[in-house]
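Board notes, transcribed. Complex of a protein with cytidine-5'-triphosphate.
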Amino acid sequence: MKYTAIILAAGKGTRMNSTVHKQFLELDGYPLLYYTLQAFEQSIVDDIILVTGEEETAYCRTEIVERYRFRKVKKIIHGGAERYLSVYQGLCAADDSDIVLIHDGARPFVTDAIIERTIQAAIQYGSGIAAMPAKDTVKIVDEEQFSVRTPARDRVWMMQTPQTFRYTQIRQAYEKVLECQSQNITDDAMVLELASHESVKIVEGSYYNMKVTTPEDLLIASAFVKKYKKIKKGIDRI
Ligand code: CTP
Ligand code: MG
């Protein structure tokens, strides 16, 4: 079985408000994307497809992939204007895979254990989505920002990545949804749900597996990176 990771790094990081796109911001001496690629390079995945913005392909190739010798990166391709369009480009480039892991480049602290849990679930159930229980109570609100509903907190999980699937299934689901897409697609699990009305299998991620999205996330990430490096050296564990 061939496992391919699609690493998404074609976003513009609007919510980060920085001139350098967030996936390239420096974190303890390395670009953020370095940590993400390193996590997959030394994992059980076979290949990595890196999806970047058109103007950033050359930088990614020389300054990240070649410089740090990421041998599993088999293709560097251009993404689309929205995340789901970047994913679709990645899927088209991964057509020799049995299992595909879709992962945000802006999520640098993914671990082997998380990667492996999503793969196992994808083999067994067709999908394995990393997620964690919500820490805050979540409210559904209307257009005027009045509360409509409060779901029971123990049933609310925050979706992370990797979101891992059997290749043919997720590719078909994407093709179906791309034809008649009517709403904003913010994760891959949603695509499977919309296309096949199937439930996805949620597996345990980690609160460390954060997505760097807004400026204060950088402060959290720079604290996390120290712990992450200790974990890698076997000095500490999550
Ligand atoms: N992404 C992508 N292609 C896009 C949009 C996003 O590959 N057209 C990637 C981002 O680079 C990121 C991941 O998808 O690693 C998650 O998206 P998000 O956190 O929303 O990043 P951005 O879209 O860059 O940020 P923002 O929404 O604030 O503009
Ligand atoms: Mg975005």
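The longest helix spans residues 215-232. The chain has one domain: 3-129+159-236.
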